[in-house]
Design a protein that fits this description.
Blueprint: E1 4-8, H1 11-18, E2 25-29, E3 35-37, E4 44-45, E5 51-52, E6 54-56, H2 61-73, E7 76-79, H3 85-100, E8 109-111, H4 119-127, H5 134-161, H6 172-188, E9 193-203, E10 206-215, E11 218-219, H7 228-242, E12 245-258, H8 266-277, H9 281-293, E13 295-296, E14 301-302, H10 317-331, H11 366-369, H12 375-390, E15 396-406, E16 412-422, E17 455-467, H13 476-486, H14 494-503, E18 507-510, E19 513-516, H15 518-530, H16 537-551, H17 557-578, H18 581-585, E20 586-592, E21 599-605, E22 608-613, E23 622-624, E24 635-641, E25 648-654, E26 657-662, E27 671-673, E28 678-683, E29 691-696, E30 702-706, E31 715-716, E32 719-721, E33 733-738, E34 742-746, E35 755-757
Parallel strand pairs: 1-2, 1-7, 7-8
Antiparallel strand pairs: 3-6, 4-5, 9-10, 9-17, 10-11, 10-16, 12-15, 12-17, 13-14, 15-16, 18-19, 20-21, 21-22, 22-23, 24-25, 25-26, 26-27, 28-29, 29-30, 30-31, 32-33, 33-34, 34-35
């Protein structure tokens, strides 16, 4: 019996594939990438055609050892990582490792590619292997070399000019620019007032609304009415002209078609999962990977969806035939179009040999799999299944009715309504929208039957005040959409881009919207001012196009690297010499220091931006900005004087929030809390001189600290309990709640491991 070794990326996929192949096939997993660039300078040799120095990834060394052991006794080796550039590179790295170990002598090595984990697809792939594509490998190595050189060269510059621990990236930096520029648009936005006028009318006992479109012979624009006085005058004019009724001047009836959205590609799946399921991009890709690699659905392990990293909207003919047959059986032949629908891929670099994301079988309805899937898996599979089925159904037909209602000479209202004549694909699926304020087409708005010349009863004319709104901040779905539109990165990288921006503290996600942090703003300002070309959207997109051209064999990678590296390195050296740290982190303001008379500036500190004296360290004057990052003027307390020096008291902002301070500072240093902290009645275990007080940090988090501060600086995050630790005799314990262990009574001393379960009312507990 022959012995064939198949190597895939994940153990879940290995387990599934093993069931499809015979006893003479052994399947192992590489657990992702097996080699990477050495993590130090010189990993890419810029002096010798960008030669790359690789090393084994520690966490996967034992998996490589296992693969090598089985490869020695194998008759043939099948390299079957994922069907994309990264997968091709993994296959090449595995081959190079086995070559180095001199295992491949006289052994055939095949590259196996499949886009769905089904028995038929796996067997066809093994029966029809191909050679490794060195063009795809070169494209992946170029991408890795570019990311390495940008990171290892630009990140240390950020450390020197801003602070340590920061990073810049070929793709992450333009993505940050998108978020910061949107925030600057919002901050510069000035609200404008405008008014609209609506008529409440009635016909045959049915009430409906109509919007004013023409006033005194002039077409009404957004800013035709800009204040209450104008709208009130317009109302009086209209009421006088109407005399209690409006006349139907014109009725338009139309039918319009709405076509279904194409099947999912990676980016549209991420967007819809965010809109409809509230999934992050990372969560979407993790769950999609599970569905692709194989699930146990009642004794049978099978991949439920096709490969989830794709930018092609094509569907295989076999899949089209199955979907169309299913629609005819489930929804009726009238819902099957005469010809299969074909969609045009937006990306010019899409790999048309790939398929869109679809269920591996349309016959596996989501309801039949619900018991075999987790909640997340079911939700995502349901979304993918519905999108794939609906894309091959007939269009929806929508009846629209619009009526012009006259109100004397030169005054007109317009009423619109729509009904769904034939739901078509909308019976199964309708794509979501970002920041949608208007009604969707599937929400019917009916008008009564109207005829020209008909008199309608006017019940009321209602002016309404409005204000223009700034552009919305990016959510995950809208950010992914913009990244895709600009050609920044690839859909498979969007999850890691977003995670990196959050991990570096460049952006924060609040109420599902991205807000740039002070650090993110300063990093973006530095890069856009000094490395303009490299955070330019078109430059980044062009580089992605070049990588795709390399993967198709249309360009060579070394000339591309030389063209990028020379000017980039020169610019880094120039900026390192010409830009000082204060040029980046200081922003001058028109205000003098109250202590020394020197200039003040907004500066970046460990806890964000603050106002400080430029004469530091000789003068140590500082004060915080307000919650919105604006310069905050101290608030004078009118009816109180400082108990120490009789100077005025003011409300100031410090490191831990607002407090009351003396205007005689620094000669008088009297301070007191703005809100009296709550006494816990638990004696401080450190100084035994005062109780612990319940306080709130500048970020709103509760903590407990000694009332004898600043003489005693003891503080803990968890609620204290006046009980002695039975293990180490520390004078107090604390109540700690975590998702994994629940609520426990623990010793606050790190070196002591005492803990015991603690019964508490769940409605009042705080999660750690």
């Amino acid at each position: 019996m022959s012995y064939n070794l198949v190597i895939v990326e994940s153990p879940a996929k290995a387990k599934t594939i093993k069931k499809y192949l015979g006893a003479d096939f052994h399947v192992l997993a590489s657990y992702g990438h097996v080699r990477d660039l050495i993590p130090k300078e010189g990993a890419v040799d810029t002096e010798h055609d960008f030669a790359m120095k690789y090393e084994l990834i520690d966490r996967n060394a034992r998996h490589v050892q296992e693969i090598s052991k089985h490869a020695k006794k194998a008759d043939a080796i099948y390299l079957a990582p994922d069907p994309d550039r990264e997968g091709e590179a993994i296959a090449w790295h595995l081959q190079e490792i086995l070559k180095t170990k001199k295992i491949l002598k006289d052994k055939p090595v095949h590259r196996v590619v499949f886009h769905e984990v089904t028995k038929k697809a796996i067997q066809e792939a093994v029966d029809n292997p191909r050679e490794l594509s060195m063009d795809m490998v070169d494209a992946q190595q170029t991408r890795r070399a570019l990311d390495y050189l940008v990171g290892f060269t630009l990140s240390p510059l950020l450390w020197r000019k801003i602070r340590r621990g920061l990073s810049a990236g070929r793709v992450q930096s333009p993505a940050l620019r998108l978020i910061v520029e949107r925030e600057l648009e919002i901050e510069k936005f000035e609200r404008q007032e405008y008014w609209s006028i609506e008529a409440k009318v009635e016909a045959e006992g049915k009430a409906f609304s109509a919007k004013l479109t023409e006033l005194n012979g002039e077409k009404l624009k957004q800013f035709s009415l800009v204040n209450e006085a104008q709208s009130k005058q317009a109302k009086e004019t209209l009421e006088a002209a109407a005399k209690g009724s409006l006349t139907v001047a014109k009725v338009d009836k139309k039918k319009r078609k709405r076509n279904p959205s194409p099947p999912f590609i990676t980016s549209t799946l991420q967007q819809e999962a965010s809109r409809k399921l509230g999934f992050t991009t990372r969560r979407t890709m993790t769950v999609a990977q599970q569905l692709y690699e194989g699930m146990d659905i009642g004794g049978e392990t099978v991949g439920l969806i096709t490969y989830m990293r794709t930018d092609s909207v094509n569907l295989a003919q076999e899949a089209l035939d199955e979907i169309r047959a299913f629609i005819g059986q489930k929804f009726g032949a009238e819902n099957v179009p005469k010809e299969p629908r074909a969609f045009k891929t937006k990306s010019k670099n899409a790999q048309e040999a790939h398929e869109a994301i679809r269920p591996t079988s349309a016959l596996r309805e989501p309801s039949s799999l619900k018991s075999a899937l987790s909640a997340d898996q079911y939700k995502l599979y349901n979304l993918i299944w519905k999108r794939a089925i609906s894309c091959q159904m007939v269009h929806a037909t929508i009846n629209t009715v619009s009526a012009n209602l006259s109100c004397g000479d030169g005054n007109n209202f317009r009423a619109t309504g729509s009904t769904i004549a034939n739901a078509g694909f909308m019976a199964v699926y309708l794509e979501g929208r970002d920041d949608q304020k208007d009604k969707d087409d599937d929400q019917e708005t009916l008008l009564p039957e109207l005829t020209e010349g008909q008199k309608l009863q006017l019940n009321e004319i209602i002016p309404a005040q409005h204000f223009t709104e700034p552009p919305p901040r990016f959510g995950e779905a809208s950010l992914v959409k913009s990244l895709e539109e600009f050609g920044i990165g690839r859909p498979s990288t969007y999850a890691s881009i977003i995670s990196t921006l959050q991990a570096r503290d460049y952006v924060k996600l609040e109420k599902k919207r991205f807000h740039p942090t002070d650090v993110g703003r300063i990093v973006n300002k530095f890069l856009t001012e000094h490395f303009t070309q490299y955070v330019d959207y078109n430059f980044t997109a062009k580089l992605e196009d070049d990588l795709d051209a390399i993967s198709r064999g249309e360009k060579q990678w070394v000339p591309l690297m030389k063209k990028f590296w020379g000017p980039f390195k020169k610019l880094v050296v120039e900026k390192d010499e010409s830009v000082q740290r204060k040029d980046v982190t200081h922003e001058a303001i028109d205000e003098k220091c109250p202590e020394c008379g020197g200039p003040l500036s907004i500066r970046l500190g460990r806890n964000g931006r603050f106002i400080g004296c430029n004469s530091y360290p000789d003068c140590k004057y500082t004060r915080n900005l307000d919650e919105n990052g604006e310069i905050e003027e101290p608030e004078i307390i009118e009816d109180r004087k400082c108990p120490k020096c009789e100077s005025a008291l003011i409300i100031k902002r410090g490191r831990y929030g607002k407090f009351i301070g003396c205007t005689g500072y620094p000669d008088c240093r009297h301070i007191e809390p703005l809100e009296k902290p709550e006494d816990t009645k638990v004696l401080c275990p450190e100084c035994s001189q005062a109780n612990l007080l319940k306080r709130k940090s500048r970020n709103g988090k509760i903590f407990y600290s000694c009332a004898n501060y600043p003489k005693c600086k003891y503080a803990i995050w968890n609620e204290p309990v006046a009980e002695i630790c039975p293990d180490c005799n520390w004078p107090i314990l604390s109540i700690k709640t975590t998702k994994r262990r629940g609520t426990e009574k623990v010793c606050p001393q790190k070196e002591c491991k005492f803990s015991e379960p603690y019964e508490v009312d769940e409605t009042s507990s705080e999660e750690d």
